[in-house]
Design a protein that fits this description.
- The chain is α/β, with parallel strands linked by helices.
- The protein has 3 domains: 270 residues, TIM Barrel, CATH 3.20.20; 202 residues, Spore Coat Polysaccharide Biosynthesis Protein SpsA, Chain A (Alpha-Beta Complex), CATH 3.90.550; 155 residues, TATA-Binding Protein, CATH 3.30.310.
- The chain is 40% helix and 18% strand.
- It is built from 26 helices and 34 strands.
- The strands form 7 sheets. A 10-stranded mixed beta sheet has the order 16-15-14-17-23-19-24-22-21-26, sandwiched between helices. Strands 4-5-6-7-8-9-10-11 form an 8-stranded parallel barrel, surrounded by 5 helices. Strands 30-31-32-33-29-34 form a 6-stranded antiparallel beta sheet, sandwiched between helices.
- Strand 2 and strand 3 form a beta hairpin.
- The C terminus is likely disordered.
């Protein structure tokens, strides 16, 4: 149990939350003032009234006040004595175009500097807000980037005077797009009275806040306009929704109806929890009840959770991982450590934790096999996964399970953050491409969650057969997410359920990790070709959330301001990184462009500058991507940018090489049962395999396709199904050199009968095209440069038609296989194959349909079915 924080301890940021001493600090606050000036001229109540107010505020259950003026020393001391912290807004006139004049900028900086000096190092100061609610038209006038940079400058002014002082600024929906980098946490004022809209907007803000804490700086209800009863209801669900949603804190506007503005008391509103003379309203009691429960509102139930940690030689960080899992704020869980054949001190460390369940594989079977062992041994309704190089936040399970239960999710994940004690090299690795990231379809639904922080219902995992053992090092999390979604399940995301994830501490470790990811991608291409592009890179439908910019962002974000900058919610739309630009750093570019230019340049010296230019272009793109990376300031060193540039350059080469090597080594699973394929296919189809036809009495074309896909999956033959954008139904991969596209159509006849046509078209795979055109290019260059010396070298070109002939043979074989395969599927679902005619000349092509009908008629008579009627000649 953590000891109480010393009274003079200061609040600090730790991950997505705040901490005071050893305990988390959740701001539960009210706004306070401004009031008519007291005897000293300060916009605060007299000390006597203030001490009475503080007693009432403590009775409310609040631990923080937001004030809109710089408090005098006595106020700071009195707040600390009452165990209250202060969020202090620095007052200055933000309703002018303050960036237009250097004098205005300097004056604002002076106000902030004075505030930082007056409050410096005082333990009562929770944070300074350097500005509150800049008008959106002023922001548009000066430019969002310039305003955000100025906010960063003001934060720097505070940090120069008091490095430990937390800083933020009061933002709100009209300027949601402002993204200063130096603030310690995000603070938003949100006045939405519709619960669904409010919760959805909080989910959006959680995505915007990324790795920083998010708190509501203001929310409130006017008693005069809404009524006290409605006010109680709305404040109730807002407080609960805020803390259940993982916000770090919430501040109700306001403590009292007394409000002094523009030189006079405002009398036509009543946002206070107390009247102007400090009489508690009904809403005071409502907030009091909720503040007593917050932040941990009870879950609807607490299902048993089995936490599975798969480890292989992870002794370096394993103890930190297991210690964190022993301190979780959740009543029903077990920890299962699966040692996948480690040869380091993992067993010794595991022995220090007798409460965990320890399973050891005698040899290294791979990550998926280890996780499957944990699933089998787990007693929980839910199985959660983290890695041995992670340290879980104590509320990890509370938020993870809570968000899993509140929606129809099969699984859920959360963010993984860089631990504060990690090195500057680890920080550079974090912002380099290829790290673990979550991919979001919406603000609440994920396409992918990283394996170091995910949880699923055990029954669902068992339903789909658990993790695929083919994934030994990585890729298992991607595969499981895609398989679940293909079964119609949804995956959620819990932004507050975070783990600290120790990044690779050296360049060598990072590159080894990327090599493993490349090998896993080769397996994913084999298992899920529909999710990959023509060079084998993954194609996500959602947005990738990662501290790493995985490519160069080509243009500035676009902001929706609304007409005349008047929209209540003004949104920033960030451009996606340019895939085409990043091709200039790919392994393919180096192999097909830079390397040939270098080889030719060695022979013809005057072409060496072209090779150098190609290399420098790749390096420049990497530098541009690195310049857009957002390194933590306290982890930035002189060599950080060059290191990130180097990692951007090396990562696609190492990962791409491993991916191609893996794809070449993956053995495709052939269809079984066709040992006498040539005679069998000739007997059934003669010499033609480009089309097959089936007569159906009742089965529809889509039902036939479903049967085909089911059989393909059962036989383990790789296929890629159309998801709505292609002109074929399914691609079937016969080898690494050829694939077949199956397209179907149905002709409808009376009585619901159908003639199902299947067209079989084959093509070369990307690898085959790459080999062919690379060979052609190299051979032509060799002939061009060496033809006069070695006249026989032109014979190399004969290899191209030979390769083409061999691939044509592969294609014909694939057509025969699929044709016979379709016959077998059709027979199982009671379709009747219609014999194809054997053409003898081009003129006889027009007679094929008549032959088809004759064959169908004969077949139908044998099967006692009706043949399809002949079509009328419309020509």
């Amino acid at each position: 149990m953590a000891s109480p924080a010393p009274i003079h301890a200061r609040v600090r940021v730790e991950g997505r939350f705040f901490r005071l001493g050893e305990k988390k600090f959740f701001p539960k606050g009210v706004t306070y003032g401004p009031f008519p000036p007291n005897e000293q001229g300060d916009p605060f109540a007299a000390p006597e009234q203030t001490i009475r107010d503080f007693a009432l505020i403590r009775e409310l259950g609040a631990n923080l006040l937001r004030v809109y003026a710089i408090p005098p020393a006595w106020f700071l001391d009195m707040a600390l004595e009452n165990d209250l912290r202060l969020l202090i807004d620095v007052p200055w006139n933000k309703h002018t175009c303050f960036l237009d004049q250097a004098a205005s900028r300097a004056e604002v900086a002076s106000f902030v500097r004075q505030a930082a000096s007056r409050c410096a190092s005082h333990a009562a100061v929770f944070a300074l807000s350097v500005v509150n609610e800049i008008p959106p038209d002023i922001v548009r006038w000066s430019g969002p980037a310039a305003v955000a940079d100025f906010i960063d400058e003001l934060v720097d002014v505070v940090k120069q005077r008091d490095a430990d002082c937390l800083c933020t600024f009061g933002n709100y929906p009209p300027t949601e797009f402002l993204r200063p980098q130096s603030v310690d946490f995000l603070c938003f004022n949100v006045y939405l009275h519709n619960r669904k809209a409010f919760e959805s907007y909080l989910a959006r803000l959680q995505m915007i806040s990324d790795a920083k804490p998010l708190m509501l700086g203001e929310f409130g209800i006017d008693s005069l306009r809404e009524g006290e009863e409605r006010k109680c209801q709305i404040l109730g669900w807002k407080i609960e929704a805020s803390f259940r949603g993982g916000l770090a804190g919430a501040i109700v506007y306001s403590f009292t109806d007394e409000w002094f503005m523009g030189g006079e008391l405002v009398r036509d509103w009543a946002f206070g929890l107390t009247t102007a003379n400090r009489q508690p309203k009904a809403s005071f009691s409502a907030v009091q009840r909720l503040f007593r429960v917050a932040p941990y509102f009870p879950l609807e139930r607490y299902p048993m959770v089995s936490i599975i940690v798969a480890v292989y030689n992870g002794a370096r960080t394993l103890q930190l991982c297991l210690e964190s899992l022993a301190r979780l704020n959740y009543p029903a869980y077990e920890v299962i450590l699966v040692d996948d054949g480690s040869t380091d001190e993992t067993p010794k460390i595991a022995g220090q934790f007798p409460s965990i369940r320890y399973i050891r594989h005698p040899q290294n079977l791979g990550l998926s096999a280890a996780r499957n062992s944990g699933i089998e041994a787990g007693r929980g309704e839910i199985v959660a996964f983290t890695d041995s190089d992670c340290r879980a936040d104590e509320d990890w399970l509370y938020y993870l399970v809570g968000d899993l239960l509140k929606d129809e999710f099969a699984g859920i994940g959360g963010p993984n953050l860089l631990p504060p004690e990690d090195s500057w090299v680890a920080a550079a690795v974090m912002v380099s491409p290829g790290g673990p990231a979550h991919v979001m379809l919406t603000d609440q639904i994920a396409e992918h969650i990283p394996g170091c922080n995910m949880a699923f219902y055990k029954q669902v995992l068992q339903e789909i057969g658990g993790f695929d053992p083919i994934f030994r090092k990585a890729g298992d999390d991607v595969d499981i997410c895609w398989r679940l979604q293909q079964c119609g399940y949804k995956i959620g995301f819990s932004p507050a359920a975070f783990v600290w994830h120790y990044r690779r501490a050296t360049v060598g470790e990072y590159l080894r990790q990327q090599r493993g990811y490349g090998e896993s991608e080769a397996l994913l291409v084999y298992r899920h070709p529909e999710y990959f592009n023509w060079i084998g890179a993954s194609q996500w439908r959602g947005r990738i959330y990662s501290p790493a910019k995985f490519g160069v962002v080509p243009h500035a974000p676009i902001i929706y301001h609304g007409t005349f900058a008047s929209a209540g919610f003004q949104t920033l739309y960030t451009a996606s990184p340019s895939f085409s630009v990043m091709l200039l750093t790919s392994l393919e570019f180096h192999v097909l462009v830079t390397l040939p230019l270098l080889v030719v340049g060695i022979i013809l010296r005057n072409l060496l500058p072209l090779a150098a230019t190609s290399f420098l272009i790749s390096l420049a793109v990497c530098g541009a991507a690195a310049s857009q990376a957002e390194l933590p300031k306290n982890k930035t060193r002189l060599w950080s940018a060059p290191l990130v540039t180097l990692l951007f350059f090396l990562q696609p080469i190492v990962r791409g090489w491993a991916r191609y090597k893996g794809r070449l080594s993956v053995r495709r699973q052939p269809l079984s049962g066709y040992e006498n394929l040539d005679s069998l296919s000739a007997e059934r189809h003669g010499a033609r395999f480009d089309q097959v036809r089936y007569w159906s009495e009742s089965l529809s074309r889509l039902e036939f396709l479903k049967a085909v896909l089911s059989e393909l999956d059962q036989k383990g033959w790789q296929n890629k199904v159309d998801v709505g954008w292609n002109d074929y139904d399914v691609e079937i991969y016969g080898s690494r050199w050829t694939y077949l596209r199956l397209t179907t159509a149905s002709e409808i006849f009376p009585g619901g009968k159908q003639l199902i046509r299947c067209r079989l078209e084959t093509a070369w795979t990307f690898l085959a095209r790459l080999v062919f055109w690379s060979a052609a290019g190299l051979e032509l260059m060799a002939i061009g440069f060496l033809g006069e010396v070695f006249p026989w070298i032109w014979l190399l070109l004969l290899s191209l038609p030979a390769f083409d002939w061999w691939l044509s043979t592969e294609q014909r074989s694939l057509k025969r296989i699929v044709a016979v395969f379709l016959d077998d599927v059709a027979e199982r679902v009671h379709l009747h194959r219609i014999e194809p005619p054997v053409p003898t000349s081009r003129r006889k092509k027009k007679a094929r349909f008549g032959s088809l009908i004759s064959a169908a008629a004969g077949r139908a008579l044998e099967e006692k079915t009706e043949p399809p009627p002949a079509k009328k000649n419309t020509g």
